[in-house]
Specification:
Strand order of the largest sheet of chain C: 1-2
Helix content of chain A: over 70%
Strand order of the largest sheet of chain A: 1-2
Strand content of chain C: under 5%
Radius of gyration of chain C: 21 Å
Strand content of chain A: under 5%
CATH topology of the largest domain in chain A: ABC transporter involved in vitamin B12 uptake, BtuC
Number of helices of chain C: 12
CATH architecture of the largest domain in chain A: Orthogonal Bundle
Shape of chain A: globular
Oligomer: heterotrimer
Structural class of chain A: mainly alpha
Distance between the termini of chain A: 29 Å
Largest sheet of chain C: 2 strands, antiparallel
Number of helices of chain A: 16
Order of helices and strands of chain C: HHHHEEHHHHHHHH
Chains: A mainly alpha (about 400), B alpha/beta (about 425), C mainly alpha (about 300)
Distance between the termini of chain C: 43 Å
Largest sheet of chain A: 2 strands, antiparallel
Shape of chain C: globular
């Protein structure tokens, strides 16, 4: 069953350039690199419970190293096949990871988070000053060179390079968890003192996990650099570090593929919606906080908990439960989006606004219809939620 | 009744038939890629607003030989890597012309992407029209046949500013250069240094500081004081300009100040009366533009609801440049961007303060500038304050434009 | 000489502002173990609340009302967002506040717009305190310093010499014992969090009329404030005080100094480093913003608990 799902997903991914136009293939590329980045970030958190707020440093290092290698290749200094170049980015990020990780992992918890934040800020500050290495405001650019009959000029070819790296790298990250190092890292995350008393060098293990995480973050960055053919020091910026945190925890940090759900889902939604709403970050932030409150293990945990129920309970009642829950969530999301977008548009128009255009319709701010819609939606959501809760109780009672 | 409906239908059909040109011409699509939601979007998005309204005005005036031009909008979030995605999205959506202006980083990304797109897809070339990114690289090392710069640059601004200030007796002979530490600020610093000799001042000290990160400018004011400067010249914008001006005002330091972005919305209202008597150089229409500017503003207000800011006006004028160029390009079943680019090189538009034209050698536009001084006598008050910009000198485009940079090697279509 | 004195004074007043913002952050961390990512967002909200209230009532009532409003907001956040995730550990509390940053930032932009507001200083405070080497020293800087020092004194007195302070300090060390003695420990935590938020709010009201009140306020100060509390020692009020002044003065002086890394190499006898270019020719004044981070590294490496922090 599990292997069937993996095979189906792989075939689906292979078919993307055949099925979709260029625009969506690029969105898929973004989803893939964001997913790998989130998986790399979560290697550190899921195993060793180290929360990095500066992973953009490694992502950016991978991007810059890759661009530099591409430029060398362009200048005929270096003859490396293009598809292999992101590996150089990964190695550069890994090197940075060894150094930064050595210092950062001396501490844990909040101090660790602050050190990683400071590393990223420091590199960001340096990035804006050191023009020879980081290209200043305009950044560095290069061009993909043909190799072995491939020109890499079409989106499809680039997509396959990215896919060819992301899938094995993700698999490698999964298997790291099964190695002795991965097991040790899990133990460190649980109780570091005890691990040390057992005679292990916890600091060395943490540094190694950190470097591995940096390696894969750098690979993700390198792939993106290969796609964009341009990078500026904004790659080290706080928004990059923040987005990987949001992706990972919304998707679910406790399950291996959780970060992928978050990264791919949010990247896709972002690509579709960021030209529609100006408040994209507000929704993401709210989703994040709600997730932390009601399902700290993210979407993936909800999904798995649900999956477990399917094995134990009769399916008609479960379908009803899921439908009711889904309806409730949908109704609440619609209410919020409607009210917030209405308010946003009314506020930009100024105090004199009487009517607002939203979803292609004009809504009068004084009309009862305009306000009846969110109220009705919220009520519907409330009823559905109540019904869902009742249904769940009944099911729980049945099991007990 | 039935007859009435049928007649109406038939008449509409006839009208539609007569109204549209016979061979269905391909629609020209202009895609604005601008920072609409990221940090700094407050000022950057004005370029997009202006372009949207500018194209509406152009379409009202007949568009491209009667055919309307389509406007598309993409949010770069102020990040060059997001901008790269949006360039692809825009091209996939069929855009022929890309427009951006808010940030040199984003514009740098677009210039590169356009170059690569045109190299790889000769049958699907796109044009980049840069309305506000002023880094001089774009007409130097990065100059490209398909990329047009309607923005000014540091050299143009500084030359106009110091010339007019000198003529008004406000320049002094000891200049302090303070700028933001990125391409624009560095260009400004270089230009300020270059004009020291010709304009008879010495640069007593120069400093580059972090962009939008400095909270407290008092140390810089202390440094200005200890340099004993008579004039401060700065290319700062946004909070970096507001804070600097406020701090100079609060310290009671008596210096003259020349700048380039005083008229961005929010600047005068935040910096307050400290700005009185300060100079700025920009493409600024009110007062100097007279009745023609008022007419343009009224037309703009009729569709937008508000008067345009300077950034919006720049976009509107650029849309007019595009229309002027399109008047010399035949409509066809396929949009030929090379022909449009060739026409853009020759297009001219008469603005209220003088003519704008495009220099073919490096695709830098010759934009007329107004050097003005912040004053309570200005007839056009800004930002809800009692202050405005009183024109001191209008510099025509050909006089204002900087020399072609040696680094520009443009491959022209054969 | 005049540059030295002026820079020192400016550094002191900026440092004291930093202290006002970081005091609440370090207190909350000391008591609850939560590093509040949204703390500088409270600072920004303080400025905006102060602006809104000030338009109705004038500056002085706003100075009291706005921080109370922020305290109430802080209390709500602690009760309904932080307490429910407390059992998942500090990392989750940290993450909740991290998410709040986005929500607050976006809401502020939504409600107040993208531009800096016109938030002028009250006329009775906008005069020159004294004249120094030909530069006026604005009285408002003195006012900021006074507020900060009064705040420092009040917090110290409150925690050292009052019964409330005693209970709070005890609740940090031995929460269960304090609870067993009949005190409401969750209430104590709620009060501390609200108090910390109020301090940030107060700093916001005070700073909002001097520095621009805009949607990027929180971002501009955010990371620096973290650096201050880490350098001072997480949870140490006195440490935050020293670190704030240190960073304030450092950044003030760095602006006027044109040293480069190459100069430093020349000092120890390696001449010609400036020919290597790149980082070696970057002037100290242009990287003034990076200095706090370097300081933070040094402190973490040499004295990991911070300047005045307790060893854990």
């Amino acid at each position: 069953m599990k292997w069937l799902a993996i095979a189906a997903a792989t075939i689906g991914l292979l078919l993307v350039p055949v099925l979709f136009g260029d625009r969506f293939v690029f969105v898929f590329i973004q989803m893939l690199t964001a997913s790998l980045f989130a998986l790399a970030f979560n290697l550190l958190w899921r195993h060793t419970r180290l929360l990095s707020f500066g992973h953009a440093a490694h992502f950016g290092a991978g991007m810059f190293a890759t661009i530099h290698l591409m430029r060398l290749a362009e200048a005929n200094v270096l003859a490396v096949p293009l598809p292999l170049i992101p590996l150089g980015g990964a190695l550069a990020a890994c090197l940075l990871g060894v150094v930064a990780g050595y210092f950062a992992t001396v501490r844990t918890g909040t101090y660790f988070a602050m050190i990683t934040l400071a590393v990223a800020e420091l590199i960001y500050a340096l990035g804006s000053q050191w023009e020879a290495l980081f290209g200043g405001e305009a950044g560095l650019s290069s061009m993909r060179l043909p190799w072995a009959g491939w020109t890499f000029a079409t989106t499809g070819e680039v997509y396959y390079i990215v896919l060819g790296w992301v899938v094995p790298a993700a698999a490698a990250l999964y298997f790291v968890g099964l190695t002795p190092l991965g097991r040790l890292a899990f133990a460190i995350g649980d109780d570091e003192t005890r691990v040390r008393f057992l005679g292990y060098n916890a600091h060395r293990a943490k540094t190694m996990v950190f470097a591995l995480s940096a390696f894969h973050a750098g690979l993700a960055g390198g792939l993106l650099a290969l796609v964009n053919e341009n990078v500026n020091y904004g790659a080290f910026g706080g928004t990059v570090s923040a987005s990987v945190v949001l992706h990972t925890f919304i998707g679910g940090s406790g399950v291996f593929l959780g970060p992928v759900i978050g990264a791919a889902g949010l990247t896709l939604l972002g690509a579709l919606l960021s030209d529609v709403t100006r408040l994209w970050l507000l929704y993401v932030g709210a989703a994040f906080v709600l997730m932390m409150l009601y399902s700290p293990e993210g979407l993936a945990a909800l999904f798995i908990a649900n999956l477990r129920l399917w094995r134990e309970l009769p399916w008609p009642s479960l379908v009803r439960l899921n439908l009711l829950g889904g309806l409730a969530v949908l109704a609440f999301v619609c209410t919020t989006v409607f009210v917030v977008e209405l308010a946003a548009r009314a506020l930009t128009e100024g105090a004199s606004a009487t009517a607002v255009v939203l979803f292609g319709t004009t809504w009068s701010l004084s009309s009862p219809v305009t306000w009846a819609i969110p109220i009705a939606l919220a009520l519907a959501g409330h009823v559905a939620l109540k019904a869902a809760i009742r249904q769940r109780r009944r099911l729980e009672d049945a099991v007990a | 009744m039935k007859f009435g409906v049928l007649t109406a239908f038939a008449m509409t059909a006839v009208a539609a038939f007569v109204g549209t040109p016979l061979p269905a011409a391909a629609q020209l699509k202009v895609a604005v890629i601008e920072n609409l939601s990221g940090p700094g979007s407050a000022t950057n998005r004005l370029f997009a607003v202006g372009m949207k309204n500018g194209l509406t005005l152009v379409n009202k005036a007949g568009g491209w030989k009667g055919q309307p031009i389509e406007y598309l909008e993409y949010d770069s979030q102020g990040s060059s890597s997001v901008a790269a995605d949006k360039v692809r999205a825009a091209i996939a959506d069929g855009a022929h012309i890309l427009v951006s202006g808010g940030s040199s980083a984003v514009a740098g990304q677009i210039v590169e992407d356009v170059r690569k797109q045109n190299l790889r897809n000769p049958d699907r070339r796109v044009i980049f029209m840069n309305v506000g990114a002023e880094a001089s690289d774009f007409t130097g090392e990065k100059c490209n046949f398909y990329s047009f710069k309607y923005a000014m640059n540091a050299e143009i601004r500084v030359k106009a500013l110091v010339t007019a200030m000198k003529a008004a007796g406000a320049l002094g002979d000891r200049v302090f250069s303070i700028n933001q530490n990125y391409s624009w600020g560095k260009d400004m610093e270089a230009a300020i240094t270059r004009y020291a000799g010709p304009m008879g001042y010495t640069v007593v000290d120069k400093v580059l500081h972090d962009v939008s990160k400095v909270q407290d400018f008092s140390p810089y004011v202390a440094r200005i004081k200890s340099s004993n400067a008579s004039t401060v010249i700065t290319g700062n914008w946004g909070s970096d300009l507001i804070l600097l001006v406020k701090e100079i005002g609060a310290s009671g330091l008596k210096v003259q100040l020349g700048s380039t972005f005083l008229e961005l919305p929010g600047t005068l209202s935040s910096a307050g009366a400290s700005t009185l008597g300060y100079y700025t150089a920009d493409f600024y229409l009110p007062e100097a533009g007279g009745a023609a500017a008022k007419a343009l503003f009224d037309r703009y207000k009729a569709i937008a609801g508000t008067l345009p800011t300077t950034s919006e006006v720049k976009s509107v004028v650029m849309a007019q440049m595009l229309q002027a160029a399109l008047a010399n390009v035949e409509l066809g079943p396929k949009v030929d961007t090379t022909k449009i680019a060739l026409a853009l090189e020759k297009a001219k538009v008469q603005t209220p303060i003088g003519e704008i034209s495009m220099r073919a050698a490096d695709h830098q536009a010759a934009v007329p500038l107004v050097v003005s001084v912040v004053s309570k006598d200005a007839s056009f008050k800004v930002d809800g304050t009692d202050m405005g910009f009183k024109p001191v000198k209008v510099i025509p485009g050909p006089e204002a434009i900087s020399a072609v940079q040696e680094t520009c090697k443009m491959d022209r279509p054969s | 000489m005049d540059f030295f004195v002026v820079s020192l004074l400016n550094g002191l007043s900026y440092g004291l502002l930093l202290f006002m913002v970081s005091a609440g952050l370090t207190l909350v961390f000391g008591m609850m173990g939560v590093l509040n990512f949204a703390h500088s967002s409270f600072y920004m909200l303080g400025a905006y609340f102060g602006y809104s209230v000030g338009r109705l009532t004038g500056f002085w009532p706003a100075l009291i009302v706005a921080p109370l409003g922020i305290a109430f907001l802080g209390a709500l956040i602690e009760r309904y967002l932080l307490r429910p995730v407390h059992r998942h550990g500090h990392a989750h509390e940290l993450l909740v506040t991290f998410g709040l940053v986005f929500i607050i930032d976006e809401l502020v932009k939504l409600l107040y717009g993208n531009y800096p507001l016109k938030n002028p200083m009250p006329v009775e405070l906008s005069f020159s305190a004294f004249r120094l080497f030909g530069l006026d020293y604005p009285f408002y800087r003195v006012f900021i310093a006074l507020v900060a020092i009064v705040m420092f004194g009040a917090i110290l007195a409150l925690s050292r010499f009052t019964r409330v302070g005693l209970i709070v300090r005890a609740a940090v060390r031995r929460p269960h014992m304090v609870e067993a003695l009949g005190h409401n420990v969750p209430m104590v935590f709620l009060g501390v969090f609200a108090g910390g938020a109020a301090l940030a709010g107060l700093a916001g009201v005070v700073a909002g009329v001097f520095y621009p009140t805009g949607p990027s306020m929180a971002q501009e100060l955010g990371v620096i404030v973290f650096v201050v509390v880490v350098v001072g020692g997480l949870g140490s009020l006195e440490g935050a005080f020293v670190a704030s002044l240190l960073i304030g003065i450092f950044s003030s002086f760095a602006v006027g100094v044109n040293w480069t890394l190459a100069d430093a190499f020349a000092l120890v006898g390696v001449a010609g480093a400036d020919l290597w270019g790149g980082a070696f020719t970057v002037k100290l004044s242009t990287v003034a913003g990076a200095i706090p981070f370097v300081l933070m590294f040094l402190v973490l490496l040499l004295r990991p608990a911070g300047l005045l922090g307790e060893r854990q």
